[in-house]
Prior knowledge:
Blueprint: H1 3-13, E1 41-43, H2 50-53, E2 57-59, E3 65-73, E4 76-78, E5 82-85, E6 88-91, E7 95-103, E8 107-111, E9 115-127, E10 133-137, E11 140-145, E12 150-155, E13 170-174, E14 177-182, E15 185-190, E16 194-198, E17 201-204, E18 208-213, E19 218-220, E20 223-226, E21 230-235, E22 240-242, E23 252-255, E24 259-264, E25 269-271, E26 275-277, E27 281-286, E28 291-293, E29 297-299, E30 302-308, E31 313-314, E32 324-328, E33 331-333
Parallel strand pairs: 3-7, 6-8, 7-9, 8-10, 9-11, 9-12, 10-13, 11-14, 12-15, 13-16, 14-17, 15-18, 16-19, 17-20, 18-21, 19-22, 20-23, 21-24, 22-25, 23-26, 24-27, 25-28, 26-29, 27-30, 28-31, 30-32
Antiparallel strand pairs: 1-5, 2-3, 3-4, 5-6, 32-33
Amino acid sequence: MKYKNIISGLLLLSLCICLAGCGADNTKLSDQEVHPIGSEITETDETSDTSETGNTAEETEDGSVRTEIVLNGDTISAGDGVTISGMTAVISEAGTYEISGNLNDGQIIVDAAGEVELVLNGVNIYCSVSPPIYVKEAENVTITLAEGTVNTLEDGSSYDIEDIVDGPDAVIYSKADLVISGSGSLNVTANYNDGITSKDTLRIENGTISVTAVNDGIKGKDYLMINDGTIVVEAGDDGMKATNDTEVSFGYMEINGGNIEINAVDDGISAISDIKITNGTININSDNNGMKSDGLITITGGTITVQAEDDGLVCLEKTIAAEAVVTVNGSAISE
C-alpha cells in the first residue's frame, strides 16, 4: 500500500470508528409468475400411499410434520405441499421440508403464505439459468444446515429471466426475511452475480459457510446480522453488505460473533447506515476499503484485522472500546 494511503486511512480512522429454472429448455422465471423447469407436471396425490410414490412425511420431536423432498439427479420426489414440474420443486404450503440428494440442473422454489423451514440434509444442487434456491414469497424462511452434512449450491454464468433489474440474481435469493442456521456446512458458488441475497432481512446464526461470487458475497437489504458461525467469502465486488437506502433505520450491519474471513475486490464490509461489531474474529483483505459505512462504525469487542489497498475504515465518527483489538494495515488502533 502506498504511504499516502496509510496516512489517509489513519486520518479517516481518527474520524471513523464509533462506539455505542434450469435445464435445456431455458424456461423463464419471472417475479410475476413461476415458470418451473421441464414440460411435464406431476403433482403428488394426497390420497396416495407414500410408500408407493416414494414421498414421505415424518413427525418431528415437537410434533410438527417434516415433509421430505428427495433429489435424484434428473428427477424429484416429494410429499404434500410440494408440486413437481420437471426438475423444479415448488413449495406452496407453510411447514418444514427436509431436502436431500443431488439435482443435476434444477431448483427449489418457495412460494407460500406462511413460515417455511428448509432443512438441507446433504444436498448438491446446480441450476444453470436461475437460483438453485429461490424464495419467491413467504412470511419468513429458515435454511437449516443439518448436523454433519455438506451442502453445495451453484448456478450458471447467465440467467434466463424476464426482469433483469429486479429479478433473482443470486444462488440463494429470497424476497422474504431469511435466517441461516444449523451446524452443517454450506458451499455456495455464484457464477452469475451474488452468492446469498435477501431483499428483506438476512440473519446468520451459525454454520460453516463458504461463498465464492463473481459479484457480492453475502447481502441483506434491511439488515445483515451475523451472530455466530465460520464464514469465508471470496467476492469479485463487496464481501458483505446491507443495501436499504430508502429507510433511515435500515441498511445496517451487525456482527455479534463468529469467525469471518473476507477477500474482496471492492469493500470488505459495506453498509448504507451503521456497522456494529460486538464480538467475533474478523479478517478482511480488500482491494478497496476494509469497512465502509455511510453512518457510524461501532466496535465494542472482538478481534479485527484489515488489510486494504485504500482506506481501512471509512465513516463519520470513531471510538474503539478497550475490549476490542483492531489492526489496520499492520498498525494496531486503540482509543
